[in-house]
Amino acid sequence: MNVPFLDLKMQYQSISEEIDIVLRQVLNATAFSGGPFVERFEEQFATFSQCKHAIGVGSGTEALWLSLLALGVGTGDEVITVPNTFIATVEAISLCGATPVFVDVDDKCYTMDPALLEAAITPRTKAIIPVHLYGQVCNMDPIMKIARKHGLLVVEDACQAHGAEYKGRRAGSIGNAGCFSFYPGKNLGAYGEAGGVTTNDHHLAAKIKMLRDHGQSKKYAHDMIGVNSRMDGLQGAVLGVKLKYLASWNYARIRNADLYRERLGGVEGVVLPEKMPYAHHIYHIFAIGVQDRDLLMKALAEKEIGCGVHYPVPVHLQDAYSFMGHKKGSFPVAEKCAEETLSLPMFAELTEEQIEHTADVIKKHFRHPLSSAA
Question: What is the pTM of this model?
Answer without folding.
Answer: 0.97
